[in-house]
Each structure stands twice: as C-alpha cells, then as structure tokens.
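Session log. Operator J.P. requested a structure for one protein chain; no other inputs attached. Running the standard single-chain path with token output.
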Amino acid sequence: MSDPLTPFRIPPTDAFAPPNAPGDDLTPVERGLVAQRLAALQPTSPIEIERQIVARGYRGQDHARRAGAVLAYRHLARLRRHFLEGVPADRLPSRENYLFLGATGSGKTYLVELLFRDILQVPTVVADVTRCSETGYVGDDVQMLLSQLYEAAGQDRGWASCGVICLDEFDKLAASRSNARFAGEGTTKDVSGFGVQRGLLTLLSGRSSPFPTDFGFSGHGARKILPLQHVMFIAAGAFSGLKDVAALSRTEGGIGFGAPARPAPDGALVAAIGSDLLENTRAFSDYGILPELVGRFSRLVAFQPLDAAVLRQILEENLLSAYRHEFSHDGVALDIDEAVIDHIVQAAHRRETGARGLRASLVPHLEEAAFRTFGQGGSARVRIGLEHGTIVLHTEAAA
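Structure written below.
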C-alpha cells in the first residue's frame, strides 16, 4: 500500500452529504483528509484479503476467515463510496457489528488485528472491556474506547470515525444469570456488567458520541464529538458454558420426581458452536447478556476449537520458525525432537488453551536455552528432547 499521506486534492464540499447532517459533524477539511487516506489504500477483493491473512501466518478457522474477509471488504467499500464517491450515509448499507464467539486461543482478536490494523490499515483498537465500568464509578467508561480509537488514528478525528473497535472479553460482561432482578435496575447505578452493557448500546447504534481527549480522571476535561456512522464494533468472547445454558433454557421447568432430566454436561470447556446456538437469543439472555445488546450485532461468527493438526501447523510454521531464526542469528543451532512437538501439541489440545498454550509450553525451555548460549561469542547447538514424558534440554558448543 502506498503512503496514506500522499498529496490529494480536497474534494469540494458539495460532493458529499451536508457537513452538518445529524451525527456527522466532520468539517470539509477533515472529510478531505479522510478521502486522501482512503484514496491511498489499494482496494482488493475478499479472496485476496483471505490470501493475505493466510500469508501472514493465520491458520485454521476457514469459515471465520472468509466471513472476516467479507466484513473487511465491505467496511472499506462503504467508506470509499461515502468519502470518495459522495454517496450520502443514509443511502449506504447500514454499518456492520460482528460478534466473534469461540474458545480461548482460537484466533478471534488476532484475526481482527490482521484484517483491519495490518491489511486495511484503518485505526484499530483491541480493548479489554472488563476494565470498563458504568459512568460514575472507578474505572474507564465506554467513551474511553473512543478516546483510544482517537489516539490510534493519530488524533485525527475524521480518520478515527472510520476505525474499528474490538471489544475483547465481551462475555465477561455477563452480570447475572438470574432473571429475578429488581424493578428499578434501569434507573439506578449498577456496578455490574449490565451498566456497561447499557453504555455499549448507545455506541453500537448511536450516530455520534462525546469522548474525552485525554486519559485523566476529570469529568470536566476537554471533549470532542465522534461520528459513529462508520465506526465498526467487533465483540469477541469465549462464552464458556453457553451451550449448557442454552440446553437448560430449552428444558421445561419442574422440581422433584416430575422434573425432566437435566442435559448431560459437555466434557469440553468450550464446545463446538453450531448455528442453532447462535440463533438462540434466550440463551444469551440467560447467560447474562442483554437481548437488545445481542441484537445490535448483525452477524455472529463461530470460532471452533483448534484441532491438533492446526495446532501443530501453527507451532511449526509460526513459532518454531521464528525462534530458529532468532537462535541462528546468535550463532546457535536449535533442534527440537518430533516427540517434543507432539507432546506440546497434545498438551495444548487437552487443556483447550489453543495457540496460547503452545507458546506457554515452549517458551520457558527456549528461555533457558537462550540463557545458556546467547552472547557467548561462539557457535553452539541446543537440542530439546523428551525423556519419560518430560521435556529436557541439552546444550553443547559446536566443534
């Protein structure tokens, strides 16, 4: 992609929707700078975007990869039609908000970063929403998400209005699985997840929102208005136990001998997610997510737990190749037995920790190898093997 700051003629104001339209208060100069950046981005097809994802090391999740590629393409196409072709926002397809569900380490946030930060190169924020609290309590309120997007855009308000916010750990906002809530909950303060969920409702469906331009704690600091018509929100969460909640929600109530049998619990921490579960709004409500908040997401994408074959591919092609290159640069030859690779893959698969589990099992041994051999001024060889089910390390100076 070319430099986004290459010279570009600012189009006339009348080529766009009225600058003072509700929810869209970008100035002609801001709109022109956005158009300049978009013109510098090379448009591409969903097929090419998916190829770039794989080329950058993403493995597995074929269905989610393609859904993400289409989402990225539509986001860029919508921006180009509005800012370059002058199509009014109300004549464009409505913005898309996606919900990514799947096991930990299955590549949800990594896919967001690859698609929008690295490939599309639009402002991208991956934020842990568990740090947020309802306005008035200690912690960040949801408007701070817009502040982070503003910083990611280099404090360019117009460019920030084209960005993407990933709400990581979204399932941790589930505040209660009990339907017996007091009648005044909507009019009182709530330090639980429901207060944050209500705050997110405005961002996901609103036309604009104020946000603080700094990260201080004063409620009287400088604020700006960010148009939200083109800001995309992607929520990501593991939703552990959602399948069991859905099964219980489909079971008729009852106690004693007349009660129906409860469904057998799934042995997996995060079971495979099917289309029937994605369409079960009541299950999300019983889980602790407001139904109207789930309704703000136009598409729910399932990330299935990575199988052993994909984990092995990630370990060999991504992690080991990078570490071998690093060790080689320091004059150290790194040999890892096949038995060790199988041991690490099976452990990650058994613990259901996904790609994160691969790194957690491997890195401590590589750190020890680096400690023994790096910076010695000569060549050396490191062999990592498996003896009686335990990973062992052997180092020797090269002849």
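Operator note: Confidence is low (pLDDT under 50) at residues 1-23, 177-189, 265-271.
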